[in-house]
Design a protein that fits this description.
25 strands, alpha+beta, seven-stranded mixed beta barrel, six-stranded mixed sheet, about 450 residues, about 25% helix
């Protein structure tokens, strides 16, 4: 049912429910909000005859004493979903967005970029909050951060219980803190960020996926890297811990000469090198390539309008917990660029339009089906790790022969291309994790009536 919580004065722990619910509690119940709970005496509110027909727009009234509000940090005036199971009453959902350590950055203004996710609020109700593990009071099971005020359409500072479910939005937090949240009873999704070599190892365990992964090695020494370059001739070097095309470098071997195109700075630098000596000198001056980089064969990517393109597939879990494709965009690189990232001057293009231009107008059902099959298998493989994921941005690509490749798996992907190409899809993608979080918390919700 849907309910609006109202306060009555008093130091006792009491709650007034509609008569039909009060009778099932036998006078006592445990009232929970997030991870905080309190034992309350249950009274019948004879002015509320029943719960049938309650909705977000027409919530019933539930009264609690001021003491209960303070103990559980319940915000008055909010429309909650209410679950009654035996002698346990749960208000919710209380959904958390887990941020990083830089608490000084997390202001109401900073949080405005999350506000478009709240377009589904009438389907979930409750509270959406944002916090850092730095602000958690582990003994009291509370956190300090920001809460979205739906009436004012703004974020404001507040203290609240630890949420029962958390959507991890930053990897600037230690695994020990995530583990501590989970041990406290918080269900954290997007719970782990595997490094790129770990992801490739996981995916290679699937015979069905192995053939889609380009030759890839973790770089450990110049000799090993040089052998990989000699064997593959065109190589891309990727940092194991960065995304959005940051830190990338390309090496192109032709005979005894090399060209290194360095994308580690805003403007790519192309450097021709005459022979092995100059190549070795470059890498000896840039030893970070030997400690946190992957080497991968550079694929001859398909092109549209003379520009490289790849395919971003957004996979998200539904409220039923099943993986579904929320959207597909093709990312077309800027003129002369070797990367397709929107943040590096690329643009978005609908999949069918890109396939029509590359493969010719016609029926591309087979290619599209293969893209969906590979994407679903990646999600299944990642679920087998035992970590809790609910969202992936998968980077796939077609080469000049039309063969499909799996390039990368992103746990906290960006969707900027959809924002311009398909705004309604962009909003659905942004809002899906809150619907999923509500369902994980046990509040599936329904459309307002």
């Amino acid at each position: 049912m849907w309910a609006r919580i109202e306060a009555v004065s008093g130091d006792s722990s009491e709650a007034w429910l509609p008569a039909d619910l009060a009778q099932s509690c036998n006078g006592e119940a445990s009232l929970a909000f997030g991870l905080r709970q309190a034992n309350v005496s249950i009274r019948s509110d004879l002015r509320v005859m029943g719960t049938r027909g309650s909705s977000f727009k027409k919530p019933i009234r539930v009264l609690v004493t001021e003491r209960v509000l303070q103990d559980l940090l319940i915000r008055r005036g909010v429309v909650y979903q209410v679950h009654l199971s035996g002698d346990r009453i749960e208000l919710g959902p209380l959904i958390g967005l887990l941020l990083g350590h830089q608490t000084h950055r997390y202001s109401p203004r900073h949080m405005e970029k999350y506000s478009d996710r709240l377009g589904v609020y009438s389907r979930i109700g409750g509270i959406v909050c944002a916090f850092s593990s730095e602000t958690v009071d582990w003994e009291r099971k509370t956190a300090y951060g920001l809460i979205y005020n739906v009436d004012r359409a703004s974020w404001e500072y507040a203290q609240f219980p630890l949420p029962s479910v958390v959507y991890r939005r930053s990897f600037h937090s230690r695994f020990t803190e995530i583990d501590r949240l989970r041990h406290a009873g918080v269900r954290v999704f997007n719970s782990h960020r595997f490094l790129k070599p770990e992801v490739y190892d996981i995916l290679r365990e699937s015979k069905a996926l192995r053939k889609y992964i380009p030759p890839t090695q973790l770089v450990s020494s110049y000799g090993q890297l040089k052998s990989f370059i000699d064997a593959n001739e065109r190589v891309i070097l990727k940092p194991t811990d960065l995304s959005r095309g940051r830190g990338i470098c390309f090496v192109d071997k032709r005979g005894h000469t090399y060209t290194v195109t360095d994308y580690r700075k805003p403007i790519p630098v192309e450097t021709p090198m005459d022979g092995d000596g100059e190549l070795r000198s470059f890498f000896m001056k840039n030893r970070s390539f030997f400690t946190r980089y992957l080497a991968q064969r550079l694929l001859p990517l398909a092109r549209v309008g003379g520009r490289l393109f790849d395919i971003r597939v957004v996979m998200q879990k539904s409220q039923r917990g099943a993986w579904k494709c929320s959207g597909i965009e093709c990312r077309v690189g800027g003129p002369g660029m070797l990367v397709t990232n929107i943040s590096r001057g690329g643009m978005a293009m609908p999949l069918e339009a890109a396939l029509d231009e590359f493969l010719g107008a016609g029926d591309h059902t087979k290619t599209v089906r293969e893209i969906h099959t590979v994407s679903s298998r990646v999600c299944a493989a990642m679920d087998k790790t035992g970590e809790h994921f609910a969202e992936f941005g998968l980077d796939l690509a077609l080469d000049t022969d039309g063969k499909l490749w799996l390039i990368e798996v992103n746990v906290i992907p960006s969707f900027n291309g959809f924002k311009e190409m398909d705004p309604p899809a962009y909003l659905r993608i942004r809002q899906a994790p809150l619907l999923y979080a509500s369902a994980v918390a046990g509040f599936s919700g329904r459309r307002c009536q």
